[in-house]
Amino acid sequence: MHAQFRGHENDSDVIVARGLCKVFHTTKRRPGFAGALKSLVAPERIEKTAVQDVSFNVSRGELLAMLGPNGAGKSTTIKMLTGILVPSAGEARVAGVVPYEERERNAARIGAVFGQRSQLWWDLPARESLNILRDIYGVPRSEHRARLREFDEMLELSEFWNTRVRHLSLGQRVRCDLAAALLHDPPVVFLDEPTIGMDVVAKEQVRQFLRYEVEQRGRTVLLTTHDMTEVTRLAGRVVLINDGRIVMDDSLEEIRRRFGGTWQVHVTFVDPYAANHLDGDSSLAGLRIVRREGPRVVFGPDEKHAPAVHEALKRITQRYQISDLALEQNDLEDVIRVAFQRQKLHEGADVPPSNIAEISAAGVHER
Amino acid sequence: MTVHAHVAPSGTSRVATGITRYWGIARITPLGELLAPPRLSANALRLGVQIFLVVCLWRALYAQTSHVAGLTREQAVTYAVLATLAGRMRILDRRYGRDTVLQHMHFGTVIYWFLRPLAPRRYYVLRALGDQVYGFTWALVGYAICLWAGAVSLPSSTASMTAFVVSMLLGQMILYHVMQLIDLTCFWTLHNSAALLILQFIQNLLSGSYSPLWFFPDWFNTMSSFLPFQFTLNVPLSLYAGIIPPSDAIQQLCFQGAWVVGLALLTKWLWRRAARRIISQGG
Fold first, then answer.
1. pLDDT tens-digit series, residues B86-140
2. Full DSSP string of A169-190
3. Residue A7 Cα, gap to closest chain B Cα (Å)
4. How far does the CA of residue B233 sit from the closest CA of chain A (Å)?
5. Which of A28, A145, B91, B153 has its CA 20 to 30 A from that of A214?
6. What is the tens place of the pLDDT at every residue in A303-313?
7. Out of A121, A137, A140, closest to residue B5 by CB
8. Which residues in A lie closer than 8 A to residue B274 (C-beta atoms)?
């Protein structure tokens, strides 16, 4: 008997989460020996809300990056969507299946990699692990061979797949784990910090593989990561999560626009007087002064009518005599940090996540 | 993209797919050992030395006497050698492969057991079965060599042999459930590996693995009779060695059968609790 699924979902939505909540019940340990005894006799039970009212959809062939600090609720959300955890409240559907109600059916439709936890058998060559998974998932041998060939071309697995997993480097092991997760051709893939601790070369290889799987194979991917380069390269859409709540769910472009400022121009004026009398200059319309220290001024784009960076440079250099000029473009890490900082500023004000950017667009540029 | 696990073929090919699937899982631990020749030869050497020392020890103990605790020298030596060989049936050490339940709990990899189109309990059973069959092959080869070398005697009658075979099978089933209980406690006692070691020691002691239970005081045997451990090894080996006559076999087999059923129900209930613990606390 399956729960009636409520909430809005389109035909193209492969992952649907509606009001997901997860509350963990644990006992609190008291300090010292007497405390331990007391805890044994009369344990103090506490509740911890890990995820609260999380709702989002992911369409077919979309890669959604879920970002947030440690303990924000990313992994708990993924565990609910993979069927490992049962939500305390709310509903989820993955590829048409309620994951925590039909765990085995859901398992056949999803692949998952959980960071540094490997599903490969430590004592066997990686290829044997892939063969065992082939048998577990019931993949026909011809398909298995073809898929391994494809994975090998992209991830160069054959260089090391006859090595025991215990002897593989982290990058090699994660590549094998990715292959293991996709071996049964699942339409949905959950990746919980898959590239954590990997070197840049291996990371890039994994990114290319993921991009191929999303763009060419049409897989739906939910990725959690702390690596902003990964987000920039792979994700079209980002969900920011903090303290178990979704802070923002928008396209990467939109998040950059709202929180990034995207660039700063550092200018040193020849004439310090000019540097101190810039207000009201119509040629600088759309620019705001981020910082001013004597002849040195930092310009950034205004929230509205901001010119493109090359236009801003042109206006400044045509109007003023300058002795030094530097352009600094904000990276995604700064953007995300600003988004979280603004959320913190407004978390007491009971503001819906989507309105945070508008309300806080007061020209503050946190760096 | 296709979804495989539930697009099951029908008839013969379905059975074949099932066998392939289960065979693939059952052979995991043996494969790890077979692919490591040094480990394989070390295990063979260890078993050989162990049997040699056991024979020497028990013969030395009987040097001045012909009967101890109602056992003749041949009976005692046969019991001790068979106990050593039976130990090989479950000696496959998964710790090398980070593949014990405790390690899976510790490293968090147990979540993958719940992410496959196969119930964790079934996966556990298949793994245990594979380990058991592989260990049994070792024990059988060892038994043949020991028989040839005169380290063990044949049972006194066909009835004893038959009773031993059935009893050993039931004993291994009890042992499987006992080991499973120990493994399942890992879902609750992740930081208590010392308690697990003590539990394993008690299991070995009370099963008669270290020494036949006939050598222990009466109070010890009375206590042991209320527990399942003696039925894993002491009873089958006593039937083989003729310490328990074939006429008493039926009663012992009934006790064993009752323990199998009781423990199976208990482990089934515990698996449900363990799964609930995973789904409420995560990996």
1. 887 765 577 777 888 888 888 889 889 989 999 888 999 999 999 999 999 999 9
2. -HHHHHHHHHHHHHTT--SEEE
3. 24
4. 30
5. A145
6. 667 787 788 88
7. A137
8. none
Are B96 and A123 in contact (CB < 8 Å)? yes
Averaged over A18-37, what is the pLDDT?
A: 82
Is B114–A84 a contact, with Cβ atoms under 8 angstroms apart?
yes
CB contact under 8 A, A107 and B115: yes
**pTM recorded for the entire structure:** 0.79
pLDDT surpasses 70 at A361: no
Residues 160-219 of A with CB under 8 A from B: 164, 166, 184-187, 217-219
Residue A289: beta bridge partners? A299
Cross-chain residue pair B117–A86, CB shorter than 8 Å: no
pLDDT in tens, A170-222: 999 999 999 999 999 999 999 999 888 888 888 889 999 999 999 999 999 99
| 3-state helix/strand/coil string of B29-85 | HHHHHHCCHHHHHHHHHHHHHHHHHHHHHHHHHCCCCCEECCEEHHHHHHHHHHHHH
Q: pLDDT above 70 covers what percent of chain B?
A: 91
Check CB contact of A40 with chain B, cutoff 8 Å.
Answer: no
A351: Cα separation from own chain's centroid? 23
CA A160, CA A127: separation in Å to the nearest integer? 9
**Which amino acid is present at A89?**
A
Of A100, A132, A166, the CB nearest to B24: A132
Tell me if B2 and A119 make a contact (CB, 8 A cut-off): no
Question: How would you class A39 by CB atoms within 10 Å of its CB: exposed for 0-12, middle for 13-18, buried for 19 or more?
Answer: middle
Contact between chains at A84 and B281 (C-beta distance less than 8 A): no
pLDDT (0 to 100) of residue A276: 87
> Is A269 buried (19+), middle (13-18) or exposed (0-12) by CB count in 10 A?
buried
| Chain B interface, best mutation among A105, A136, A196, A214, by max B CB count within 10 A | A136
pLDDT, one tens digit per residue, over A91-149 is: 999 999 999 899 889 999 999 999 889 999 998 999 999 999 999 999 999 999 999 99
Residue A137 to residue B281, Cβ atoms within 8 A: no
- Can you give the residue ranges of every domain in chain B? 15-281
**pLDDT tens track for A45-65:** 888 899 999 999 999 999 999
Query: What ipTM does the predicted assembly reach?
Result: 0.83
Share of chain A above pLDDT 90, in %: 47
Is A112 in contact with B35 (Cβ distance < 8 A)?
no
Whether residue A121 and residue B97 make contact (CB cut-off 8 A), yes or no, is: yes
What residues in B contact A134, CB-CB < 8 Å?
A: 24
* Residue A80 host element (H or E): helix A74-82
Instruction: Tell me the nearest-neighbour CA distance from B30 into chain A, angstroms.
Output: 10
Identify the CA nearest to A269 among candidates A287, A294, A291: A294
pLDDT computed for residue A261 by the predictor: 55
Taking the Cβ of residue A83 and every Cβ of chain B, the question of whether any pair is shorter than 8 Å is answered with: yes
Alpha-carbon distance of B9 to B15, in angstroms, equals 9
CA distance B253 to B275: 32
Beta bridge partners of B71: B68
